[in-house]
Amino acid sequence: MRKKIFILLITLTTCQFLYAQSNSLKDFPKGFGPKEVGKRLAYRFLDRKHMLHNGKWISYPETFNWSGALKYAALTRDKKLLSQLEARFEKLTSQEKELLPIMNHVDLNMFGSLPLELYLITKDKQYFEMGMPYADTQWVVPQNANAKQKEWNDQGYSWQTRLWIDDMYMITIVQAQAFKATGDRKYIDRAAKEMVLYLDELQRPNGLFYHAPDVPYYWGRGNGWMAAGMTELLRVLPQDNKDRRRILEGYQTMMKSLKAYQKPSGMWNQLIDEPDCWAETSGSAMFTYALITGVKRGWLNKEEYASTARKGWLALVPYINEKGDVAEVCVGTNKKNDKQYYYDRPRNTGDSHGQSPYLWCTYALLEK
């Protein structure tokens, strides 16, 4: 009898554990639900001034904040939000046309991912025609290219290659969007080839990434761009792509390390491996997005990683203030071979560097 009771208890405990795991990314306390959080963040974007690159063009943080709000609107079928986001974009084709980024740098070409997102949602050809040149020119060497840029091109890589970890979201996202919009394998195949280059050059044995080959620090948001970039690529990369296994391996190795470095609070630090560094929201949100997606897509073991993803989300939400602005966001950060530089970076509230990945988390949680 005791043996039967023991077996029954073990069975019940196992079932309860499996139930908890299966619902850990679905059931949240009041105020933490992805739909309500996403609505606060997406509508907040409508009230924001433009965040410009060099004071001239729509910046990559604004681009990703915008596209994140669009994806949220489409997923939740919020027609009012979608209409308002599209109306704001229409200004870029008229009175704000000078704010459209030029196509000569990795941080500017990524803008094409935004009109391509609008095309994927609305099927309006004007968005396709606006977005595709940004994807195409990443692999068209300009006449004034320097010797190193030409060398990258000769090897089949983007002439915009520079081996900064940020690039693996900037390049990946626009090429992935072009693939989704056209079905042409060349876009996703060349993005995968580029990703393997960065994995080979920058990922360390512990799974994390240096900011650049000459900057041996594990900067949070930089690693976040890499985590999110691999996630976006794996979402659409065909199973028969020759580089998929290598990229999945790099992703899983990184997620294992991030699980180990997650703070008891659920956050990750500005320098991931430095216990005395401050908790930073944008990188933490990017890691959480990658973890949520990996669990839901089956790239990660649910029993091992679902609780890590949930812990990250529950830690992130309290950083959103009453206006819908995310606090403790590291400002834009160039590479520098100086550890103290990363400790001393200013922190913003409401910076699109942070607003964007929070939105990614909301639609990742809402996806079936």
TrEMBL record:
GO biological process: carbohydrate metabolic process
GO molecular function: hydrolase activity
Signal peptide residues on this chain, from the entry's feature table: 1-20
Regions that span the bilayer: none
One Pfam family here: Glyco_hydro_88
Keyword Iron recorded: no
Top-level division of the source organism's lineage: Bacteria
UniProt cross-references to PANTHER family, sorted A to Z: UNSATURATED RHAMNOGALACTURONAN HYDROLASE (EUROFUNG) (PTHR33886:SF8)
Listed name of the protein: Rhamnogalacturonyl hydrolase YesR
Protein source organism: Pedobacter rhizosphaerae
